[in-house]
Amino acid sequence: MQSVRYADLMFQPDMLSATRDDGTVLRLTRQERALILHLSRQPHKLITRAQLLEGLGDLAGELGERNVDYLVNRLRKRLGDNARAPRFIATQYGEGYLWVADAVAAETVSAFMLIGPVYGLAQDAGPLGAIVERLAKHVGSALGDERKVLCMPQWRFEQGAAGTIGHSLEVSLLSDEEQVHMALVLRDGGTNSPIAPFRITLPGPSRTADLEVFAQSLVQSIWAHAALPDGQPPEPTDRPLHLRLHDAALLVSAGCESWRENAPRLAEGHAANPDDPTIAVLRALNRYAQLVLAPFMPETPPLTDAEWLAIEDEMERLVLGALPQAGGKPMLLMGIAKVLRFLDRGHLQLACRLTDEAFLTSTAFAAAFAMKGQIHASQGDIERAIELYDRAIELSKAGSQFHIYLLVIKGTALLAADRRGDIAQLTAELHALDPASRLRVGLFFLPPKARLVPAVLKPVLAAVTMTQGQRMLMYLYRISARQFARRHHQKNVLLGLSVHLVNMHGAGVIPPELKTRFPDLAARQGNAQKRYSIETT
């Protein structure tokens, strides 16, 4: 049962209340509700007084047919109806009444941000209407052209309109001789639940510079609501914190480099609340995203070893500093565990303990399975890791960033175990869901004995210089290989890309650090060089 609109009234599904376009809520008695239901279910059809009385049932009490006229006239007055020019109830003299109002179809409304309802606008909005228009303009500019902003002062959530609304901004206005007072509430577009309140006082109707500042605060609140845990127990399908950060950045920015959007917001939050463990962990995860995305930012100079090390130092300080206050917060514990595992600084056992502690109390099963899978993979139990990844994949939304992330980390575990057949099947699924992943991670999943390089990757591989190849191998080691405790798992992760780079540039493409760790890596690749050069000509 849905809300229904007749003329300027939106009736709730239970028909016990209705909302006018000016925001006034009309509460109906049970008798009034019964009359409306009986009349409106048979529009434009004569209903006798006796039938209406019968429709009241037990609510009629000792009433007779003569009392029906009184009830109808009282209902008309409450609805704002007129017997001489009826909009709702018409009289058939001597016989009964007709419901003459037709239900108005719900308007399809789709927008990222809908500004409405707006209370306090007169019929002729004048200067206040101009303020609302400027507000909409500033909000649109702050969100960017890719985010649709609608300004609908008469809109009401109760309308139950078709379409999709991401967020709504409820506005109340009051103007005196010198100032305009504004109370605003950012709401979730799907549930109408409040997200954040705001209060603005403008020096006058024509001075609206503060609206631009407010628009930036509004965007910050949208980001914070999406990025920061809100204290509610997570759902079994909820994303890990680092993916929540990523999605929050995409929500308020069209760019794909989510860490850039998040970085200044988190830095500001950490400066204002240096002891907040949530902000600290999120900032560390944001630094993690920066390292992972480093090769995919061509306009940014590659990170030096010293810069990479400094970022890792900061990540370690942030999560270890947050650890004492993270107890009883499963999502934070898993975020800390993820950073500690990534850093490979002797914290694997601590990361394992934190993950187990989080799993025992967390309702976010998908995120917990993913983290436990990574711990098992690091410890060498690849089969158990794959099982946990598959359970997380079952809980993830198909095609979501979480789903794609799970496929990538599962693929890395398969790479470590040298299960090349399974990798081929997984990468086909991954590329179908996310075609861009073929270019982002395709080189890392190349089999070392591949007779042919996929056509889409040939120009990419051919463009890699000796220096770039060295950086790519160190990158792959840092973000994937080193997280596996067993040396042969590490080497398997590196092997495919190493083979193809050595076949292009010779053994010198292997960085000195990796030559020391894997002295047989280049030797094994060198044996394949002649075969490679013949088959790719």
**Cα-atom radius of gyration:** 32 Å
Major pleated sheet: 5 strands, antiparallel
The CATH topology of the largest domain: Serine Threonine Protein Phosphatase 5, Tetratricopeptide repeat
Please indicate the count of domains.
Answer: 5
Structural class: alpha+beta
Write down how many β-strands occur, each being a DSSP E stretch of 2 or more residues: 13
The first-to-last residue Cα distance is 68 Å
Specify the helix fraction band.
40-55%
Strand content: 5-15%
Task: Report the mean per-residue pLDDT as an integer.
Answer: 85
Label this structure with key terms.
537 residues, alpha+beta, Rossmann fold, Serine Threonine Protein Phosphatase 5, Tetratricopeptide repeat, 5 domains, five-stranded antiparallel beta sheet, 12% strand
SSE diagram, text form:
Layout: E1 4-6, E2 9-11, E3 17-20, E4 25-27, H1 30-40, E5 47-48, H2 49-56, H3 65-79, E6 89-92, E7 96-99, E8 103-104, E9 111-119, H4 126-143, E10 149-151, E11 165-175, E12 180-188, E13 194-202, H5 209-227, H6 241-252, H7 258-272, H8 277-293, H9 305-322, H10 330-343, H11 348-361, H12 365-379, H13 382-395, H14 401-416, H15 420-433, H16 437-441, H17 458-462, H18 466-479, H19 487-505, H20 512-517, H21 519-526, H22 529-535
Parallel strand pairs: 9-10, 9-11
Antiparallel strand pairs: 1-2, 1-8, 2-3, 3-4, 5-7, 6-7, 11-12, 12-13
Helix pairs in contact: 2-3, 4-5, 5-6, 6-7, 7-8, 8-9, 8-10, 9-10, 10-11, 10-12, 11-12, 12-13, 13-14, 14-15, 14-19, 18-19, 19-21, 19-22
